[in-house]
Each structure stands twice: as C-alpha cells, then as structure tokens.
Amino acid sequence: MADGSTAFLFPGQGAQSAGMGRALASAHPGAAELFRSADAVLGYRLSRICFEGPESELQLTANAQPAILTVSIAAARALAERGVTPSIVLGHSLGEYSALVAAGALSFEDAVLAVHRRGLYMQEAVPVGEGAMAALLGIEAVPAEEICAAAEGEGLGVVSVANDNAPGQIVIAGRTAAVERAIVLAKDRGARRAMRLPVSAPFHCELMAPARDRLAADLEKLAFRDLAIPLVTNVDAAPIRAGAEARASLVRQVTGRVRWAESVRRLRAMGADRAIECGPGQVLAGLVKRIDPGIRIVSCGDPETLDAAATLAAGR
Prior knowledge:
Blueprint: E1 5-10, H1 22-27, H2 29-42, H3 46-52, H4 55-58, H5 61-81, E2 88-91, H6 95-102, H7 108-125, E3 131-137, H8 141-153, E4 159-166, E5 169-175, H9 176-188, E6 193-196, H10 209-220, E7 231-232, E8 239-240, H11 243-252, H12 260-269, E9 272-278, H13 283-291, E10 296-300, H14 306-313
Parallel strand pairs: 1-2, 1-9, 9-10
Antiparallel strand pairs: 3-5, 3-6, 4-5, 7-8
Helix pairs in contact: 2-5, 2-7, 5-6, 5-7, 7-10, 8-9, 10-11
C-alpha cells in the first residue's frame, strides 16, 4: 500500500447517542434508505430509536449495535458520494462489522441482523450483575495481565484484558468479584484511575463463550465475500483479505482481546497517515491521537463534518 493512504475507522458500542443519524438521513437519500432497510430487516423502528431515543432504549445492547452500524455505514456512503473511499479499514469490536460492509465482504442487511443478534447473545450469556468491566488508566497491557492473573489466582473467577485501547488505557472484563479485586490491585500498582464501566455484560472475555458459539452458527449461514480492500482485525492486529478469515475473526473477537493500539500502529506501518472515523462520536479519534499523533484523523457522523473529511482524504 502506498504512503499517504486513507483508512476508515468504525466505532463500537458506547458511541451511541439519541439523535444520531437523523441529520444524515435528512440530507442524504442513500442514508435514509439504509435506515428504512434496517427497520425492515429487524422488524421494528430502529430509525425512531436512533433519531428520537429514548436514551434508555438506545443503550440496550441489541439496539445499540445495529444502530451504530447503520449510522457508520450511512456516513461511509455519504463520503463515497463525494468520491471519498478508504484504502484500508479497521473497526473497534462491533465496528469490525461496519468495516466489513465498507470493504464489500458482507451485505448491510446481513450485518445489521447479525449485530442485533450478537447484542442479544452477549446480553444473555451472563446474568446481569455476575459480570463486569473496568477501565485501568495509567497501566499498560503487561502489568494489567499480571493484575488479572493475581485476581484470578485468589479464586474469584475469570478476569482478563478485554481492550488494549491506547497507551495507558486498558479495559478488563470478567466475573464481578474478580474485576473488583483487580481494581484494587491496579490502584496498588499505581494506576492513575481504576473504575467500573457502566456496561451490562463483560464483553471480550471467556464468559462470552455461549454468545460466541451461538453467533458462530449464525455467521456460518452468511455469505462472506473476499474483501475489496484490507481490514486489520481486532484479534490479531493483522490485515486480511479473505472472506473466510473475516468470518473466523468475528467469531474469535467475541471472547478475544481488542488489540486496538496494535491495530492502529499496523495501519501506519501499511502506509495510512490519514484516517476518518465514520459513525457517531469521536472516541476513536481521541485514541488514535494518543497512539500515533502522526496520523491525521477527523470524525464524520453528520453532514457538517463531510467537508472536513473530504479535505483530509484529498491530502489537504
């Protein structure tokens, strides 16, 4: 891949907010059609939940996941109407589905139903209250692994690194008691902050094995085409082009670590020095700036940000 290429990055769960996508759907007929398609595939008004809320309904995992995917693809297609397309794609957890749609490996209709079911399976895998996630700030991946191993060693259950998001920003997941103990141990190790996250399930750890197995059966029935452009996977931080590899990566990431920091560094090694965050929020832009300040990035989730994204992609 030539230097100076543009990557599209797609956000994961947590980026949602009531009202997202409404301006895109109003300004771009293609975006409006995507929301109509999502409503038809899911059998309920996802568009209403996105555009109007309430926030409590949007936060439900089974709604948040297809909602974020739909807004993300709407942004990517609005950019495509301006001639802005990526040379490589990367998605954070759920965002890997958006990235595969953008790369031509998976149809939007298949993806939006798959992530709705993914959200249901994840929510049902662990009873509410039995699992938790926590952010450890000021701690790197290796010390975080040691902290998790120590908490597990006390017989409190599974806990492991779920997301390596950026230097000094680690997320862990597992049994609630083990996560709580890891928080204490992280503070003892000098963490700047260590706190529980407001999530309803412990994503990206072995407790999600039931969700992984149910999702694998669903994904086996879907048509995965070879990718038109490379995707850097979460689980390996390595580029793939084969549809079969994409399917396998989506299965593995349910219980596997999101290697975000490594993945962004791989983008840069492959020649991407510009990136556009397609979808709601600006979380990924903040992480990229911490991982590699040399990558220029803008967030694009509404009509007002299309010009800045197009300018960046043109190298200006």
